[in-house]
């Protein structure tokens, strides 16, 4: 059951169809569309309804932030999935040339919201996000889940370490070597 009845799919469709609220018009103060608001609220149902009505999935704010970035920042797994399935650009960059994965690794969220990090990271990587670009920021922010997920997704470790800087890159290479060694030494499970 939707815990946000004020923003369910039927309400969104009524606003757009009956009251002629524009699905792509930017609200002036924050330069956000209705889809940005739905993504920020983590409301997958409202996001899906807006997309069905033709909302621009990759609309950008003045800072270059897309609805997908907002959903990722909220760690809203369902909304992230809806946006990616609708064709959102998982490698979109903002005005500071930061990707969506970069923002995920830069955001220091409280522990209770970080539990969705891995699910969101996997959705982005499965949706085509560049793991090497993500690894650079994951290394710089010491985001262990991000490092492991992007390396497993095929990130170019040498390139990411070079981008992270000499000291951070050398430290990261040691961490990755330790992870690989642990994985190789893991005893096989012989339980029958």
Q: Got a strand count?
A: 0
> Rg from C-alpha positions?
19 Å
Mean pLDDT: 77
Reading the helices and strands in chain order gives HHHHHHHHHHHH
Structural class: mainly alpha
Portion in helices: 55-70%
The CATH topology of the largest domain is what?
Serine Threonine Protein Phosphatase 5, Tetratricopeptide repeat
Number of domains: 2
Q: Name the CATH class of the largest domain.
A: Mainly Alpha
CATH superfamily of the largest domain: Ankyrin repeat-containing domain
Global shape: elongated
Which residue ranges are poorly predicted, with pLDDT under 50 across at least 5 consecutive positions? 1-6
Separation, N- and C-terminal Cα atoms: 42 Å
- List the total number of helices: 12
Strand count, sense and barrel status of the largest sheet are: none
Beta percentage is under 5%
CATH architecture of the largest domain: Alpha Horseshoe
């Amino acid at each position: 059951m939707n815990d946000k009845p004020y923003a369910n799919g039927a309400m969104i469709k009524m606003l757009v169809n009956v009251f002629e609220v524009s699905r792509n018009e930017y609200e002036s103060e924050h330069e956000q569309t209705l889809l940005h608001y739905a993504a920020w609220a983590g409301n997958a149902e409202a996001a899906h309804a807006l997309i069905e009505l033709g909302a621009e999935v990759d609309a950008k704010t003045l800072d270059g932030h897309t609805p997908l970035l907002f959903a990722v920042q909220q760690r809203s797994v369902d909304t992230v999935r809806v946006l990616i399935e609708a064709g959102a650009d998982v490698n979109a960059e903002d005005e500071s040339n930061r990707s969506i994965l970069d923002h995920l690794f830069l955001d220091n969220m409280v522990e209770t919201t970080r539990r969705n990090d891995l699910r969101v990271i996997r959705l982005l990587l499965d949706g085509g996000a560049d793991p090497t670009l993500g690894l650079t920021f994951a290394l710089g922010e010491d985001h262990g889940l991000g490092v492991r997920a992007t390396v497993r997704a095929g990130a170019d470790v040498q390139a990411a370490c070079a981008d992270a800087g000499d000291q951070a890159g050398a430290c990261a290479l040691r961490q990755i070597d330790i992870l690989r060694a642990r994985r190789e030494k893991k005893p096989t499970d012989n339980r029958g």
